[in-house]
Amino acid sequence: MSKVLYQADLDLSPVRERTVAIIGYGNHGRSHALNLRDMGVEQILVALREGSASRETARTDGFEVVSIADAARQADILALMAADEVHGEIWREHLLPHCRAGQVLILAHGFSIDYGVVDPPADIDVVLAAPKGPGGAVRSSFERGGSLIGFWAVHQDASGQAEAIATAYLGGLGCGRAGIYPTSFKEEALADILGEQAVLVGGICALAREGYEQLVASGINPIMAYIDTVHELKYITDLIHERGIAGMYAAISDTAEFGAHEVEDSIRTAVRPVFEAIIRDVTAGDFARRWVTDYERGRKHLYAMRAKATAHPLERTGRLIRSADARRKEPLAWL
Ligand SMILES: NC(=O)c1ccc[n+]([C@@H]2O[C@H](COP(=O)([O-])OP(=O)(O)OC[C@H]3O[C@@H](n4cnc5c(N)ncnc54)[C@H](OP(=O)(O)O)[C@@H]3O)[C@@H](O)[C@H]2O)c1
After folding, report:
1. Which one of the listed residues 87, 109, 155, 231 is annotated catalytic?
2. All domains of the chain, ordered by start, with CATH?
3. Torsion angle of alpha carbons 133, 68, 79, 26, nearest 10°?
């Protein structure tokens, strides 16, 4: 494995000596701005669209808020922390017309560069500085004295300093407390998207829904079905997070472990072609094209899929169970 950098290995001056514009003040943008300031970066601008609901939050947090075009004119480092689907529009309309040679574009996801959504001129540095995890955790782990693991990559190195800036930016987020690793835009984009589509979000939700529907169709009480296929996910993912998959297996009952080992192979065989199709779809850029096109058409497909998912009967069952949990103030795992 390539060299891992920790906080003591890092020189933060390439970022501390520059003006940093954080474009977007959502989950990542806000955490980045707060962590960078706490780590001694003094010149920070928060760049928001006109009428942004985040303007007040950024001002209350003590940051100067500017337009995105002004950020492109004033800052040395442009950290594009807006939602991925708007990167193309922000880049074409607000950044590209005002950016200049010698600036640095930082992204937190490989998406926009690897799939050609953003096409920067050759005279700027383009780097990836990706703390791996949700934006809120970038801040909450930092406040607890820890951090998320960070990954960096260089797409363009016009200044000869791109690597130093990418690693300094991650150091400014505190990621050197957990470790900073090299990657590529391609690797980060595929890993992130495959992970969320096939496993962490799409995969888990598909298995949970299928399990719930099969149990209810077999005449099982929906409350029981929900607890055994959805609600208890938390206990298992907490165990995996703390101890790994083998550690989770060691912690559960032998009955659960015996049955789970027996069916793992057949489930993997069934989903393998689906996973392979997802990898082809993502690698070819087809997923990125579909998502950006849907965004440009008013997110109609996203909203239709969201409405269908929200109307699923298991949501009502889940609300009942969560309200019982809240009344008891203890988990219902004993049911
Ligand atoms: N590598 C990883 O593991 C990882 C994990 C999570 C996220 N990320 C990346 O981090 C970046 C930010 O993600 P996030 O979760 O922080 O996003 P988010 O919370 O959804 O942030 C959205 C921000 O984008 C702004 N925005 C939305 N539409 C806009 C538009 N049309 N024009 C200008 N600004 C607009 C919003 O502005 P308003 O405040 O005005 O609404 C908001 O400030 C993304 O590139 C994402 O992929 C990476």
Report:
1. 109
2. 7-183 (3.40.50.720), 201-328 (no CATH)
3. -20
